[in-house]
Design goal:
The protein is α/β, with parallel strands linked by helices and about 210 residues long. The chain has one domain (about 1-210): Domain of unknown function DUF4159 (Rossmann fold, 3-Layer(aba) Sandwich). About 35% of the residues lie in helices and about 15% in strands. It is built from seven helices and seven strands; from the N terminus they run αβαββαβαβββααα. A hairpin with a 2-residue loop joins strand 6 (about 160-165) and strand 7. It comes from Tenacibaculum tangerinum.
Length: about 210
């Protein structure tokens, strides 16, 4: 097991400066492919406003192999069911505990399922609400009040949750915010410019934080 951990750590170190991002294609029937314009738009925004040079070609990965270890940050979104096999949960755990980062955006309807599946990955950890003074809210852009509200779902306040492993934030989960919708092309949801700007700025902070930590 120790040798496996060393191999995984080496793989991540080899890709530490790789500026590529990927979306996770999961099982369960949920629409992992939702919001196809979201990540391309976010990458363009991040490259324009920070010092990143992220590849505009967004990759898709599964948890069936170790391809995920090529990416410092990965994304999950969707509206419905999500399911990890035991092997997939182990792969995701190894990825995250070895230096990887995951952003989950509830596109409405994902919450029940992602909470269940994260327990497979980290049965010993609890999602914690991220305080407003956490660095993820204060990168190139500052959000003194924490996660911005992008789309209305159930008239609840937006909340940013996280999983921490040995003090490091490894998963950021935006709930009742729907950042992913805010990253989409303007014509998709007809969001006001200032709403899309907030979503892209917060998304930029997430990527910037992940690359630094």
């Amino acid at each position: 097991m120790r040798n496996f951990s060393i191999i995984i750590f080496f793989l991540l170190c080899m890709n530490l400066f790789s500026q590529e991002v990927a979306i996770i294609q999961y099982k369960g029937g949920g629409d992992w492919y939702a919001n196809p314009t979201a990540l391309p738009n976010l990458v363009k925004f991040v490259n324009l406003h920070t010092k990143t040079q992220i590849d505009n070609d967004i990759q898709t990965v599964t948890l069936d192999d170790e391809t995920i270890f090529n990416f410092p940050i990965t994304f999950i979104t969707g509206h419905g069911n999500i399911f990890f096999t035991t092997n997939e949960a182990t792969t995701l755990r190894n990825y995250l505990t070895s230096g990887g980062f995951l952003h989950i955006s509830d596109n409405y309807g994902l919450n029940t399922y992602i909470q269940r599946e994260l327990k497979k990955v980290f049965p010993e950890l609890q999602l914690q609400e991220i305080p407003n003074n956490h660095p993820i809210y204060h990168q190139t852009f500052s959000f003194p009040k924490g996660l911005p509200k992008i789309h209305e779902h159930d008239k609840k306040p937006p909340q940013g949750f996280g999983l921490f492993f040995k003090g490091r934030l490894i998963v950021f989960y935006d709930y009742e915010s729907d950042l992913n919708d805010g990253w989409e092309d303007a014509a998709v949801h007809n969001d006001p410019k200032e709403i899309r700007e907030k979503a892209l700025q917060m998304g930029s902070n997430i990527i910037e934080y992940a690359f630094k930590n």
